[in-house]
Design a protein that fits this description.
Blueprint lengths: L1 E4 L3 E4 L4 E8 L7 E7 L6 E6 L6 E3 L7 E6 L4 E6 L8 E8 L10 E6 L1
Length: 115
């Protein structure tokens, strides 16, 4: 089982960045997919989620209207499009599967937003 996140990066406030997470060796379409993030010194927090077929999403209030999650089940990929980034979005971002529990986690990728 593998969840491989794309490389994050360093961006300026107000810019956009798209993360992806590639799934392999499990039935990707059987799982909702969630994104989390963890900033230095803080607990991991929920960012957003997408349903198994991609017809439903929900987001944390802190990112609502700025972040968009999508998925491509044919490619076993889930995406996190981040726009209007703020310095407080700086964190390590993780994708994870959800099917009653968080069975699989990606390794995390660093996103740094400079002011």
């Amino acid at each position: 089982v593998q969840l491989q996140a794309s490389r994050g990066g360093l961006v300026q406030a107000g810019e956009s960045l798209k993360l992806s997470c590639a799934a392999s060796h499990f039935k990707f379409s059987h799982y909702d997919m969630h994104w989390f993030r963890q900033a230095p010194g803080k607990e991991r927090e929920f960012v957003g989620a997408i349903s198994r077929v991609g017809n439903s999403t929900n987001y944390a209030n802190s990112v609502k209207g700025r972040f968009t999650i999508s998925r491509d089940n044919a490619k076993n990929m889930v995406y996190l499009q981040m726009s209007s980034l703020k310095p407080e979005d700086t964190a390590v971002y993780y994708c994870a599967t959800w099917n009653g529990d968080y069975e699989f986690w990606g390794r995390g990728t660093q996103v740094t937003v400079s002011s």
